[in-house]
Amino acid sequence: MSVYIDTSAFLAVLDADDAHHPQAKAAWISLLESDEILLCNNYVLIETHALVQHRLGMAAARAFVENVYPVLTIIWLNGDAHNQALSALLTANRRDLSLVDCASFITMRQLGINRAFTFDKHFVEQGFSQV
Fold first, then answer.
1. Fewer CB within 10 Å of terminal CB in the chain, N or C?
2. Domains and CATH numbers, the chain
3. d(CA 115, CA 131)
4. How many CA atoms lie within 13 A of 50 on its CB side?
5. pTM, full prediction
């Protein structure tokens, strides 16, 4: 089985001050010890890297790349997927929904993934289950 990893989960795992940190850390360890395929797309990685660098510093950003990237299956979005995500975002016309969220939903649907490690309510709104 596969689990999609969202920015909110990465941040909760990495930031000890995050309200979800204890829960996220336990879930992350459980996922690493499981046979689950952990994946995300490059948009999530870009968003996470930028937020980690800004909030936690370059050492944390480097640790994210060196320690987390190797355990992930990374889905690289092409122009068609980007345009689908952009269209979904503009159609939704919601300020609280992001392009990265929409790109994640497109990725999950294309790959038939229905479970996400996330603390973002938008995934549940879209019919996905939370890990």
1. N
2. 2-77+114-130 (3.40.50.1010)
3. 6
4. 7
5. 0.95
